Amino acid sequence: MILGLAKRWSVASYTLALLIVMPLVALILQSLLPDEAVFGHLMATVLPTYISNTLLLIFWVVIGALIFAIPAAWLVAKCRFPGRNIFQWALLLPLAMPAYVVAYVYTDLFDYAGPVQRTLRSIFGWQTPHDYYFPEVRSLGGAAIMLALVLFPYIYLLARTAFMEQSSSLGHAARVMGCSPWKSFWRLSLPMARPALAVGATLVAMETAADFATVSYFAVPTLTTAVYDTWFEYGSLTAAAKLSTIMLLVVFAMVGFERFARRKQQLFQKQSAPGELDYYSLRGAKAYAATGYCLTLLFLAFFLPFIILVQYAWGYFAESWNAKFFEYSFNSLWISLVVSLICVGIGIVLMFVRRVSPRKADMLPSRLASTGYALPGTVLAIGILVPFTQLDFAINDLADYLGLPGPGLILTGSSFILICAFCIRFAAIAIGSIENSYKRISPSLDMASVTLGLTPKSLLARVHIPLLRKGIFAGLLLVFIECMKELPAALLLRPIGFENLATYVFQFVSDEQLEHGALAAIVIVLVGLVPLIYLNRSLEQEK
């Protein structure tokens, strides 16, 4: 620990943290203002529907993701079967696929005019929708299935790790006591993996609560669509802030419930070394069933939508390969790059202060700065609009007072607000990545550096940053990809005439013309595969 840490480093960390938390404070203050006209009308009419749909959607997505993820995670972690080595990383691929793209693809396949129902009608001679029953794809249940297919890897990754870390001696003891693989899974592996499953389910629930594009495309009214509609249709920032606060309470309640449920749970076990892992060797029908399950899940969640995207892009390549595609790709590229660099800079400063400061109070800024990731994109957009709009008005009022021409909406009318929103939302990713790398650096290096007379600035530049290269790179990569995919905040905050790949693709999805935006969607997916490959390589190296 460095006892003589310069005060300006501590001041800088608190300043960064307060700037990141500012939208949340502004959102809460704005929500306290009266707005009986719009919000009162919403409470009396559709707000109960918004809340109930949001809670139901979260419930069914979490249940679906658990059903998809747990068998796959246990099979990959505990069993040997054909294709296991491929499935252990390939089952992460659905995370790269935007949920609204998957929703469009399956709607196109299973809708009344789609190939599946057309084939059924031709085989059985059905003429009208009244002649047969087919589940409605565009429904709350359909949205839950689409989101579960895309989000289950969150639970799969954590559950797989938990299953692999369970001591092999416990498995041997279960066999000695006559437990079959199924009983061992149900009575031993699953209860011990509960903490990891709870964390994964919470992540899925938070992502579901934050989803806008899928529920909007399926016309399922939730709190995210309510915030968007209230701002754009009613023009009431206060009512949108009130709805955002309700949504924020839902998110915090989920996190609090997860921690409350595990408050007294303690788990002690000796982890298995890599060479000690004990696997069940599956043969015959069981092996084929395991391979078939993992392959079917991967096909439905990733390969089928991706293959259809490629077909769309091939058929409409001439229309898609145009100046707009390059312009919007460049917009996504430069904003994601700028945000990545800023977030990594924030993460380095905050974690450096937390690392070297002897004061417990200096641990607070990094924790405050990490709260931004819990804010759904629509909530964050409203929270950041409140102070930036007031600041724009103040600048124009000052210019008018000085007799100067007003500069206009220089903050809310430019890409600056979009960059700020992305930095607030994704700084937590960079902080987490750098924090993980800092854990591998021995504190004795800091002590030796201080003994040699290094200042905090020299310590950071000459010792820490070279050792943090992997964490910095991972943070840059992950933040870059998240910026490329972020849609709700971009839709609400983008300047007039500004588009990136995410908003560009969503416009085609909304207009039922994804074929024209398939090339842009493929770019988003392919770029999203990069961190998954990097994550898998990192996990393999740690084994």
Which key terms come to mind for this protein?
543 residues, mainly alpha, two-stranded parallel sheet, globular
Helix content: over 70%
Q: Per the principal axes of the C-alpha atoms, what is the gross shape?
A: globular
Strand content: under 5%
Q: What can be said about the biggest beta sheet?
A: 2 strands, parallel
Radius of gyration: 25 Å
What value does the average pLDDT take?
83
Q: Which secondary-structure class do the elements indicate?
A: mainly alpha
SS elements, strand count = 2
SSE ordering: HHHEHHHHHHHHHHEHHHHHHHHHHHH
Number of helices: 25
Main β-sheet, spatial strand arrangement: 1-2
Span of the ends, CA to CA: 31 Å
Weakly predicted, low-confidence segments: 270-276
